[in-house]
Amino acid sequence: MSTSPATPDPRRCSQLLVSVRNLEEAQIVAAARVDVIDFKEPRSGPLAPVDAGVWSSAARALPDAVLSAALGESSTAVALAGHVPPVFRFAKVGPSQQRTPSQLERLWGELPLPGSVELVPVAYADHQAADCLELEGVLDSVIATGRGRLLIDTYGKDGRSLTDHFGAMDLAKLIARARAAGIWIALAGSLQLDQVKQLVQQGVVADCWGVRGDVCVRGVAPAQQRAGALDAGRVESWMQGLKLLALGPQHGAAAAPRVTGSAALFR
Ligand SMILES: O=C[C@H](O)COP(=O)(O)O
Description:
- By secondary structure, this protein is of the alpha/beta class.
- Helices cover about 35% and strands about 15% of the residues.
- The protein is built from 11 helices and 8 strands.
- Strands 1-2-3-4-5-6-7-8 form an 8-stranded parallel barrel, surrounded by 6 helices.
- Strand 3 (about 65-70), helix 3 (about 75-80) and strand 4 form a beta-alpha-beta unit.
- The site of glyceraldehyde-3-phosphate has 16 residues, from strand 1 and strand 8.
């Protein structure tokens, strides 16, 4: 659940979440001062968990970082939730096979997360592939259950990205609705930095952008890239790119609407 609002940092446009699969990658991301270090195994699915031993190592090595754990879908999340170290800030859970609001809300309610770890519900832009509620329905449930956050991702990591499933105008409307309800919203789904720049120019400004594939070493097909090695230079490019976007048109970006609502930064 949300805590008290933080003062938005006027120099920042959006936060960055980078998914990592082990402590070595997490330390690279921490050195780049990425906002959220998210642990998941990209070889095993959209939200596949890493071994709980990796969570424990990260909790010991990076106690001051904002750490997040992907718990997978309903088939794994309930059993794993109780093992998330209390120093973690977030845990993400996918909605696949949850076809009704009551199924989804029951799943969220059953997760035995430590009290200090906030659930980040996930909605899939390609919800048919995941056989679950569509985005608007997941947002309705987030609002109805008084939760503070929503991550939109893609279920199929097949080379298509978020914007292949959901257009800029629809994303902007969804963000506006979430923001009006005080929900922090993160966008992910095989996004590339150039796409994010275009989205921002079209008025789509997430509270946070989530990425894995585009911060990995290039040279393989996009769908495989996310399973490869993390590239520290790409992480730095994203950090610099988001900073430039926050500065506005003279730096090559359209004036990005500032995130000023209660959902602006971590609460
Ligand atoms: O939570 C965000 C995801 O890790 C994004 O991964 P992706 O960029 O490979 O789709």
